[in-house]
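For consistency, the fold was encoded as tokens, as this record shows:
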Amino acid sequence: MRYLYFSILLVASFSVNAIDTSYSNEVSKISIASKLHNANLPIVYLSRLSIDKNPAVISNASGLSLISPISVVYSGYDSSVSYDVSNFYRMNKPRVQSALTIPTSSPGQYLSIGLDSGVSTQKLNVSSGLFLAYTNTINLNKDTFFNYSFGGWLGGKISESPCYDSFDRAYSCKSLTAWSDYSPIYPAQYRYLSVRAVKLF
């Protein structure tokens, strides 16, 4: 049996890594297939697992970049002033991210739970995070189905600490500017609402 698939996706912030739109699409397709066949997958399964010792980019739990690999930085006040800060942003332990997809007793209904161990470096830390999502498909009539899914990350607080010069003055390690002038704006955690309609024909 073939079906026509329409989709509307509303996202609060887009993620290119970790638990992202591709993950929500994957679970939604499983939900729709389960509803069509009136049976969920019989097991809880590990749908994502990532262990990263040396990431190309340090990101929040959603995969949105916080800082790229840094070696030498130049002062925001005087470009002739530079400093090697690479040691400050080396991870102290591997970052582990995982996600479980859990079927319920109702065909088409799934729960998702994800964990992120966070990031620990000398000058930048991301606390551990928890991902929660709900996906369901319902019948509108005998040949039309409605699928919806929503979820997002909790936790993952970001914190930074300053560097100090020989006069014990605090400054931003990433820009070599005064710590009092440093006001970073971090990307929001990923949250989404996805709505889809399926028409059999």
